[in-house]
Design a protein that fits this description.
The chain is built from 4 helices and 4 strands. The radius of gyration is 17 Å and the shape is globular. Helices cover about 55% and strands about 15% of the residues. The chain starts with a helix and ends in a 14-residue tail after the last helix. Helix 1 packs parallel to helix 3, helix 2 packs antiparallel against helix 3 and helix 3 packs antiparallel against helix 4.
């Protein structure tokens, strides 16, 4: 089941980036729900909110590609060797899928395609993609599950593997 979550998340992210690349690359911004949702194409050579985009290419490759690959390996080792509850394990799989999908873009193109922007009036998010949503939701689930939040308590007696 967890493999299906990873594969589906990567597939949805890659498909949405392909559609965005085909329909938004001409620079036309699309606006929905009273401009609270904007679709606009952006190539992000950096990390979160384009941090590090101005670094030299070798530094970006080291930090964002090799660094991500090492973190992905650590996530797999953690999932296999630690007794994680269902919620943190599901969160780890979402985080892994998002990070892996962005890594695929970095290796293939040198940047990540971003296209989503949310906000009300002048208060807006940065531009992001589906993989970023999976990463943030995954991190939230890991934290909630690890902290024993009521209703999201870690269940170490059952594993999804």
């Amino acid at each position: 089941m967890l493999l299906a979550v990873v594969v589906t998340t990567i597939g949805c992210d890659q498909a949405s980036k392909r559609v965005a690349s085909g329909h938004l690359i001409d620079g036309q911004r699309q606006s929905y729900l009273g401009d609270s949702v904007r679709l606009e194409y952006s190539e992000n050579a950096g990390g979160f909110l384009s941090l590090g985009a101005d670094l030299p290419a070798w530094a970006r490759m080291t930090l964002f590609s090799f660094g991500s690959a090492i973190l992905l390996i650590a996530a797999v080792v953690s999932a296999v060797t630690r007794s994680l509850g269902r919620v943190p394990l599901f969160g780890l799989c979402l985080w892994f899928a998002g990070a892996a999908s962005n890594l695929i873009d970095r290796v293939a193109h040198g940047w990540v395609v971003d296209f989503l922007n949310l906000g009300i009036g002048p208060v807006r998010t940065g531009i992001f993609n589906v993989a970023d949503i999976a990463i943030m939701f995954g991190v939230a689930l890991i934290i909630l599950g690890a902290r024993g939040v009521p209703g999201v308590e870690p269940d170490r007696s059952q594993r999804w593997m």
